[in-house]
């Protein structure tokens, strides 16, 4: 069994892995396959299991062998099974009547892909988001939450790595009985029995077949064999969606003190634990989830009756729909009217890095809120340089010598490894009693601080490299520390080089609000364009995902460095698209509560077309370099739950539309579903999506869209567009007159190249961005447009 980790990002929160796995050896010639069958929706569940068994029996020698080889039966909407098969048996099955596809399982790695965050989007009842032209008052947000009954009737399925049920965030005090339609269960396991479920956590299950088949039995020192969370991630995401209101919550050292609350504090949680530790690795190196476990978790969630699925799981790079069991499961979930929200991943800022691009999923990237944890550096000449940390340690009032890591390393270190404070690289005699500046770019952030501590340093400054730019991380280090932007790192380097006795002091960290432009994209947040299908613009939307305070497990320190960090915290600050995804899931809960008849496409459309593209200073939302963020970084903009409740028009789509879409992709994606497709179907870009991407446009193209009126019965919407100089956007008709709610109108959007404006050397993969809107007196329904030219 060979497992190779390739560290994509050197940073701790953003650590991602690509595991190259070859574990054919475990069970002779047998590998895990997923076999999908044509479904009969009305078949009773036990009969479905019998059918699965009989398929297996037809390729296996005996009843017992068939029984032993079956890992899971999928039976709610998805009809199929996971089993251990030889390639021959798989081939035989794939030729049988009734089999849709036989797919060799790929192990799937999950990347970790509150207080202030809800206030920041105007949902705490006290503050409006930064103002666009909007005029949202306290009243609006209280209104939204009360109208949605704080999510009390809505059930959210969390596909993650469990929950810490003892956290105050999951108390069910004062909650009404569990909705009658709930069909889920609370599965007993280690340190978690059915008594842990209550009116807040209404279901809990866990999935180990895929994991144990690939990696051997769970090491019960590393995780609980139950839905209990030993890691922190699952508790954090669950409490962001639906944590109760907990006053005076704060992280280690009192940072971010305030009232912790989920976005939908009375929503019900159903826990599906499908992700487990990487054996023998500390938690901060990631968790692993297998395709078949994820598919089973989604299948059960469909059967149990969840309304929204929050999935902060994904590959570090895109994979085809065929290999992607989250995409497959999500399609079935959407068929059952479940809204599926997924994280886009933490593989930014490089392009093409986003995962979960299926158009039936809401794909969420991550941005900042207007809160900082400032811990400036004071130079002895009086100059103060801004820094950020959540380290609860102070160095007192003295100044200490400031050195650059590259000047105090053991001699002979290769230049490429220099300046990063990697393990055992610093010379204690040159570091003793000093503050050391270490650069990002290689190695883990917290480990660098430990290296400075090992060498006897009294303080540690983490300098961003150019790629990270202004996106300064906030970490809980083990010695007094702070982090600085790339620009400030250069200032410090200049200071050290220009002074004979550079001396500095790191001031204690403190929480400050409203001091910086926000939101701004996190540098770790994955980017488009969508390479799985260039006809669909992804990501969809951004939400808070940087330094989010939420519930934690008591079994793991705030840094998840299992072997080192024995600190115990009830609440912890954490970053990732894993944190932004549950924010949008909570917004979906509120929308679903207010508009119970809306489809998942309607909810996505409402969120996308009302998203904000400016920050709290009224300027365009920026990325980590300080430039305006493109739609490949921020999607259609920052979510705005209050506006999304009243979008005016929505772009709807049904399960059948998605099927036709996959038919149109069948050829390129080898989905092998073409035999269920009608003879003719439109092209993939005709899917009624609320944004538009045209890839390698040859001069001009017209596509059809349909909007449904969900605003005032009598209303008139006018078209308007803003396009770059490279093309123009027109609509026919350009006025839409509605007479009743629910009325649909078609229009055509034509994008035409402006002659002589395309710089051919930019090539066919250079995208140019614009947008169009439909607006009446009350609504602006905005669609983002991305075009590249052949
Ligand atoms: C916002 O609302 C206040 C109070 O209702 C009103 O005075 C003000 O003019 C409004 N501002 C805008 C921009 O509509
Ligand atoms: C689960 O555990 C509870 C409490 O220990 C016990 O009462 C119950 O019977 C168990 N249920 C099952 C299905 O084992
Ligand atoms: C929260 O903290 C404040 C000040 O520290 C204190 O006055 C208040 O009683 C605390 N509230 C709760 C519910 O503990
Ligand atoms: C202190 O040193 C820095 C870095 O060399 C320099 O930019 C700054 O102007 C100095 N401040 C004062 C007050 O001399
Ligand atoms: C959208 O389409 C679905 C059917 O696919 C339908 O149930 C729903 O009413 C439509 N409209 C809205 C606003 O969701
Ligand atoms: C899809 O079908 C083709 C032709 O029937 C077959 O060659 C191919 O292996 C199938 N692919 C999968 C993934 O099942
Ligand atoms: C663009 O379309 C024209 C005809 O409409 C065709 O001759 C040309 O080959 C096309 N170019 C590309 C790059 O597809
Ligand atoms: C859109 O274009 C198609 C094809 O050119 C045409 O058949 C249809 O009538 C147009 N729809 C509208 C609303 O103009």
Task: Give the topology, please.
Elements (H helix, E strand, L loop, with lengths): L1 E4 L13 E4 L8 E7 L7 H13 L5 H7 E5 L5 E6 L1 H8 L4 E6 L2 E4 L5 H5 L17 H10 L7 E6 L40 E6 L2 H7 L17 H10 L3 E4 L8 E3 L7 E6 L1 E3 L9 E4 H14 L3 E4 L13 H11 L3 E5 L18 E6 L3 E4 L2 E3 L4 E2 L14 E5 L23 H4 L3 E5 L5 H10 L4 E5 L17 E4 L1 H13 L4 E4 L3 E4 L27 E4 L3 E4 L19 E4 L2 H18 L5 H10 L21 H4 L6 H4 L4 E2 L4 H15 L22 E6 L2 E10 L5 E8 L4 E6 L2 E4 L5 E10 L14 E8 L4 E10 L1
Parallel strand pairs: 8-12, 8-15, 9-12, 15-16, 16-17, 17-27, 21-22, 22-23, 23-24, 31-38
Antiparallel strand pairs: 1-2, 3-5, 3-6, 4-5, 7-14, 10-11, 13-14, 18-26, 19-20, 19-25, 21-25, 28-29, 30-32, 32-36, 33-35, 33-37, 34-36, 37-38
Helix pairs in contact: 1-2, 7-13, 8-9
The chain binds 2-acetamido-2-deoxy-beta-D-glucopyranose (NAG) (8 copies).
Q: Please, could you describe this protein's structure?
A:
This protein is α/β, with parallel strands linked by helices and 790 residues long. The chain is built from 17 helices and 38 strands. The strands form 10 sheets. It has a 7-stranded parallel β-sheet, with helices on both faces. The two termini are 45 Å apart. One 2-acetamido-2-deoxy-beta-D-glucopyranose binds at residues 247-248.
